[in-house]
Design a protein that fits this description.
- The structure is a single chain.
- The protein is mainly alpha-helical.
- It has helices at residues 2-12, 19-25, 30-36, 40-51, 70-83; strands at 54-57, 60-63.
- The chain has five helices and two strands.
- Strands 1-2 form a two-stranded antiparallel sheet.
- Strand 1 (54-57) and strand 2 form a beta hairpin.
- Residues 54-65 have low confidence and may be disordered.
Length: 86
């Protein structure tokens, strides 16, 4: 699923990585994706974490572990869920 999502991300951009598109690329049911990932954002974050093991900042490297660039995205998602718990 992660490999398929990464390929779609490279090919179609962020908007092209839907759970339906990933399911068709795997192939699997769309529901099977939710067995492994909470939502599309978690799948995309996994793609980023596996594709970008280090991000270079100002000549140094920042590993994607612990407090990372992904953490603010997760906080944003969690806040959104509290405000709109669909």
């Amino acid at each position: 699923m992660v490999v398929a999502a990464e390929a779609l991300l490279r090919e179609r951009g962020l908007g092209g990585v839907t759970t339906r598109a990933v399911a068709e690329a795997v192939p699997c049911s769309e529901g099977a994706i939710y067995v492994h990932f909470k939502d599309r954002l978690e799948l995309l974050l996994t793609v980023l974490q596996e594709s970008l093991p280090e991000i270079k900042l100002s000549g140094g490297c920042m590993p994607l572990s612990g407090m990372t660039l992904v953490t603010p995205l997760l906080r944003c998602r969690d806040t959104q869920r509290k405000l709109d718990p669909r």
